[in-house]
């Protein structure tokens, strides 16, 4: 590891042992989503949490409903939603980004199951690639895996 590697800070003290974390991934922009999903798997493995899935949906607009189905199934302690929305020339970007974010937030508040937001909303392919790098580098999927375990452990403190 390099001195700029954030892994020790990110994973410091986190124990996912015994936790089941479901992954819901959008298929649109699949090359980037594959990289994010690999990051999620790496992060969960690093914390000894079990990965459930991934479950695939067509695009980011469909993420909230699949997250809800998984959250209420009783088979997971948390969910990570991942996908990519890249700005184009129309308002499609805003509509899909807003729907995914607000839908996922509504599901986690309604179900009480943490859903980490591993969805990239970026201006370009270059930005998406920068945020979905390999092991030891910046990967929003890996960061979302950490968030999922952090939130489960936080909620367990208050039960």
Helix content: 40-55%
The second-level CATH architecture is 3-Layer(aba) Sandwich
Sheet with most strands: strand arrangement: 2-1-3-4
Span between N and C termini?
37 Å
CATH top-level class:
Alpha Beta
CA-based gyration radius:
15 Å
CATH topological fold name = Rossmann fold
Question: Please, could you describe this protein's structure?
Answer:
The chain has six helices and four strands; from the N terminus they run αβαβαβαβαα. With 159 residues, it is α/β, with parallel strands linked by helices. β3, α4 (92-111) and β4 (115-122) form a beta-alpha-beta unit. The radius of gyration is 15 Å and the shape is globular. The model is unreliable at 1-8 (pLDDT under 50).
Structure described in brief:
The protein has 159 residues and is an alpha/beta fold.
SSE arrangement:
Layout (H helix, E strand, L loop, with lengths): L6 H5 L8 E7 L3 H17 L3 E8 L5 H10 L5 E9 L5 H20 L3 E8 L2 H6 L9 H18 L2
Parallel strand pairs: 1-2, 1-3, 3-4
Question: Descriptors for this entry?
Answer:
alpha/beta, Rossmann fold, four-stranded parallel sheet, 4 strands, 48% helix, globular, disordered N terminus
